[in-house]
Amino acid sequence: MNPSIKTASLALGAIILSGCVAVLAALAQPAANTAPSYTEAGRLVFPSAYRKWVFLSSGHDMSYLPAPVRRMSTFGNVFVSPQSHDAFLQSGTWPDKTVLVLEVRRAEQEGSINRNGHFQSEVVRHEVHLKDVARFSASGGWAFFAFATEAPADMIPRTANCYSCHEANAAVDTTFVQFYPTLLPIARAKNTLSAPYLAAESRN
Ligand code: HEC
Asked: How far apart are CA 51 and CA 81, in angstroms?
């Protein structure tokens, strides 16, 4: 073989090999641990990687009272870990250790070139709804947390209206899948919609 062709093909081989090694190294990395983690005092550690998770939907100024409430205008962005999202696609419901994050951001208008509609700006707070069956068996395996900062947060007491509203109205396993448009058809196909949701749907 012509020596320059030989050198070129050796170099090409080395490039392909190093590319394969990089791909294999990426595949071999363990999936990021997205299970809930707690301090010794039992507070939930803020799930700070949630912005790399799967985005489910945004609600704008959603309120659950008949009359509009005058308060700060916000968006609520909902995220779930990729592992739990994969499991939902298979089963239509959430596995143990699922963490859902509701990121509440201020809604703005008339900034930059925007003249109509709303866009999002800074975070107002985070709320977390998670499933940890062994730890929260007294509340059906689920618990709520609210974060004003990223410091660890205590579980919201079982008597709070978070639990009663989610249990009475949410479409799948106390989560509001009726507002997550990519998940609702899956829950319907897998027959995992809750009895209260199906009853409300048949009344409409
Ligand atoms: C009157 C009903 C109601 C109450 C009370 C309520 N929520 Fe929700 N929640 C909703 C609805 C509707 C959604 C879905 C739409 C949205 O806001 O994005 C939701 C979504 C969520 C989500 C996203 C994950 C999921 O479960 O679907 C979290 C996290 C959450 N709420 C936390 C809380 C916390 C914490 C409280 C109590 C401080 C609370 N909620 C009280 C109705 C309620």
From this structure: 10
Residue nearest to atom 11 of ligand 1 (CA): 176
Residue 106 to residues 35, 65, 112, 128, Cα–Cα distance (Å): 28, 20, 16, 18
How far apart CA 34 and CA 50 sit, in angstroms, is 9
Residue 99 Cα distances to 5, 9, 127, 200, angstroms: 55, 50, 10, 26
Residue 63 has pLDDT above 90, yes or no: no
- The Cα 155–Cα 204 span in angstroms is 35
Calculate the average pLDDT of the chain.
89
pLDDT in tens, 126-181: 999 999 999 999 889 999 999 999 999 999 999 999 999 999 999 999 999 999 99
Q: Check residue 2 and give its pLDDT.
A: 58
| Nearest residue (CA) to ligand 1, atom 34 | 162
CB-defined site of ligand 1, < 6 Å: 59, 62, 64, 76, 78, 100, 102, 127-129, 144, 146, 156, 160-162, 165-166, 175-176, 179
In the numeric block, the tokens 């945004």 are attached to 58
Nearest to 120 by CA among 79, 80, 74, 78: 74
